[in-house]
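Example for tutorial group B:
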């Protein structure tokens, strides 16, 4: 709503909490004025904004300097409600923190990593994700020198039909526009190598006010006239044809421009001369009218729809991360940019020049004008390779043969290879997680004298096993609802347990440095594996291979060479590998296919290993203390870890990037997850249901009177068993 200019009177300024001189930034013009902050609203140049309506605020660069502030009163709008430029950073920050303090309970803060996780898992479209990245990288539709930038995605503008199953239809997203034509690139590189410092490959940028208005002249002619001193550009240099523009971007000596968001939107007016503007006559005699579309588009709306479909297509989904690396990521600067042929003029980069140090006013204004007109490289958002998007062809889940993982169900006959069964199982899991807030306790049993450390279940679901710091293994009958056996192998705490696929053997790890094999049919210890110099903290099993983690700073890999279900023949264990760490290993886990291993150490380091050759794939120091628990997502693309620092981290397996990090109110000791949702056992004894896409707790469920220390979930995710420091085991069920 507009307010009267009297608000800017001396009296109004005296009544406000904060008063700063600003300029309101609009395309190609900045209007001077004041911003007045009152208790519940702000005013600037007759624009009135109620603070409770503000949904997003962003600090902005303007002219490559940290002077801007942009305010949005809606969650998803492309354009903001107001963009302000301050005289100095201190004034900008004062207004920012004034608004942020008011909004701290009303506004969710999003990071590039949180948006990345949503996009990677298919909860954000590529269009939405690119808008968010542009926003976080200081791009704004109010600032033509930093207008949002989108990629050319299609390379075919001549065919009568657009074939999105053919890779040749699409642009190579791993290269900047200037490197798409090898002959032109060779010429540019020859000039670059002979150029004195500071050298650059491209003399023009991929985004500038001129390029933006080149595309938008039919809807914003006044801006073009302002930029061109009252004239339109020469008719043959206007935006006449999609195909011609693409051809010139491939072959032109100085044309390396990318696209703008309007090419993927729903409003085709920028492609049509609806105002009947006199845009000139071309050399061939034709008048400049509507933009000429490719043969595969029936009209401008059809073009936009197919263009957007291309952006969301399988090919682009699999390769968009490569373009993000160039524009927002680790190939934007330095040696990686040189290797990727992605080096632009130094004035386009933040930090390339400090205008405030230029004493001469005329020189400073000239330099700022050059920066604003030449184009600016987005703020760098990522410094390591961007993960690839998870597309349907990658979502093949291979079942693990260890029944101790969250892939086991409490009923017989659930293991099948039929694809229809797999689909049904997957849908059932999704339904269960969507309904996880309805989790209710069924029964509670105090069968240990100390904290529970591990829970495992037999294949048919009839027997539940638990280990404890009281050094015992307990066998509990689910049907009889009572414990049937108690076994003790040593006088030291047992740290974990698992049931082998034959449902005849339970394996227990112990603080006495040993691993014990217990025969269920014969009710006695069957074997002892002595292989570590300190406590064995955790184990995992795949087919005939056992992985044991220890506080002696190793994970050892053992091959079982005999039938461990036999009561008369002792098993033979061959040491296949010893994976060394810099600190004691507290937890270990396998992906469902058994091809990847992840280990978590006491020094907060996560290490991902290739089980085919025991080589390190990724090593990330991401916690400031001991890692309690970690596990792969069902699709093996991510690892989730929780630690003593109360942090929860999501790591991309492919790149090693921490793509989500959240600090909880308390330590999370154990969890089950499906890639999007996490059910955690906290230090307080409660179960917490986390939505990883928003990093928020959606449900807190009272459970134990001490920390939750062990957790097991059935394959269909409808049954849960938890153990805690209160010595209890609790059975849970989803309510239908």
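The residue assignment follows.
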């Amino acid at each position: 709503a507009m307010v009267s200019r009297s608000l800017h009177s001396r009296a109004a300024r005296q009544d406000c909490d904060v008063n700063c001189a600003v300029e309101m930034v609009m395309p190609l013009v900045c209007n001077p004025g004041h911003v007045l902050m009152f208790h519940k609203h702000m005013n600037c140049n007759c624009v009135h904004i109620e603070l409770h309506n503000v949904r997003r605020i962003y600090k902005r660069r303007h002219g490559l300097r940290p002077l801007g502030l942009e305010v949005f009163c809606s969650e998803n709008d492309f354009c903001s409600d107001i963009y302000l430029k301050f005289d100095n950073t201190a004034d900008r920050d004062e207004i920012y923190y004034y608004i942020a303090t008011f909004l701290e309970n009303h506004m969710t803060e999003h990071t590039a990593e949180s948006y990345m996780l949503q996009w990677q898992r298919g909860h954000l479209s590529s269009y939405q994700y690119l808008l968010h990245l542009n926003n976080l990288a200081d791009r704004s539709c109010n600032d033509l020198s930093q207008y949002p930038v989108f990629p050319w995605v299609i390379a075919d503008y001549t065919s009568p039909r657009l074939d999105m199953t053919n890779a040749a239809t699409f642009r190579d997203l791993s290269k900047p526009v200037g490197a798409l034509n090898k002959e032109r690139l060779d010429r540019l590189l020859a000039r670059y190598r002979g150029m004195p410092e500071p050298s650059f490959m491209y003399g023009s940028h991929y985004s500038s006010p001129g390029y933006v208005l080149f595309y938008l002249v039919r809807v914003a002619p006044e801006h073009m006239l302002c930029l061109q001193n009252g004239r339109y550009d020469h008719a043959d240099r206007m935006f006449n044809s999609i195909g011609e523009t693409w051809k010139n971007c491939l072959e032109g000596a100085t044309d390396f421009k990318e696209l703008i968001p309007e090419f993927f939107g729903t409003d085709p007016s920028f492609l049509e001369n609806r105002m009947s503007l006199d845009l000139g006559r071309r050399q061939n005699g034709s008048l400049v009218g509507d933009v000429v579309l490719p043969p595969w588009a029936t009209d401008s709306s059809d073009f936009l729809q197919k263009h957007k479909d291309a952006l969301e297509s399988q090919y682009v989904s699999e390769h968009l991360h490569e373009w993000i690396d160039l524009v927002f990521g680790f190939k934007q600067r330095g040696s990686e940019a040189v290797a990727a042929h992605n080096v632009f003029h130094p004035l386009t980069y933040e930090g390339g020049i400090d205008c405030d140090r230029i004493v001469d006013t005329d020189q400073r204004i000239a330099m700022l004008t050059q920066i604003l007109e030449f184009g600016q490289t987005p703020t760098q958002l990522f410094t390591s390779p961007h993960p690839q998007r998870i597309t349907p062809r990658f979502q093949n889940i291979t079942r693990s043969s260890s029944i101790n993982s969250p892939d086991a169900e409490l009923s017989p006959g659930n293991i099948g290879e039929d694809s229809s069964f797999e689909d049904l199982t997957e849908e059932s899991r999704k339904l269960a997680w969507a309904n996880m807030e309805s989790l209710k306790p069924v029964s509670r049993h105090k069968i240990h004298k100390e904290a529970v450390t591990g829970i495992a279940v037999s294949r048919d679901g009839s027997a539940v096993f638990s280990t404890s710091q009281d050094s015992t293994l307990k066998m509990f009958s689910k049907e009889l609802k009572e414990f049937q056996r108690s076994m003790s192998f040593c006088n030291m705490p047992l740290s974990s347990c698992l049931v082998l696929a034959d449902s005849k053997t339970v394996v227990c790890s112990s603080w006495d440095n040993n691993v014990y094999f217990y025969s269920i049919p014969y009710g006695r210890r069957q074997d002892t594996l002595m292989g570590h110099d300190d406590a064995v903290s955790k184990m995992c099993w795949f087919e005939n291979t056992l992985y044991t983690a220890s506080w002696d700073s190793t994970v050892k890999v053992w091959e079982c060479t005999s039938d461990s279900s036999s009561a008369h023949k002792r098993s033979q264990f061959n040491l296949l590998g010893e994976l060394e760490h810099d600190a004691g290993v507290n937890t270990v886990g396998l992906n469902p296919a058994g091809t990847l291993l992840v280990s978590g150490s006491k020094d907060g380091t996560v290490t991902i290993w290739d089980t085919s050759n025991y080589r390190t794939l990724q090593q990330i120091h991401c916690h400031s203390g001991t890692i309690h628990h970690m596990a792969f997502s069902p699709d093996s693309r991510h690892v989730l870890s929780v630690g003593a620092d109360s942090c929860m981290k999501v790591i991309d397996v492919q790149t090693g990037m921490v793509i989500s990090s959240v600090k909880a109110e308390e330590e999370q000791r154990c969890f089950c997850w499906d890639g999007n949702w996490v059910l955690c056992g906290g230090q307080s004894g409660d179960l917490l249901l986390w939505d990883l896409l928003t990093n928020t707790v959606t449900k807190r469920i009272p459970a134990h009177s001490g920390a939750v220390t062990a957790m097991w979930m059935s394959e269909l995710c409808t049954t849960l068993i938890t153990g805690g420091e209160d010595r209890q085991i609790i059975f849970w069920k989803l309510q239908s």
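The mean pLDDT is 87. Compare this with the pattern of hydrophobic and polar residues in the output above.
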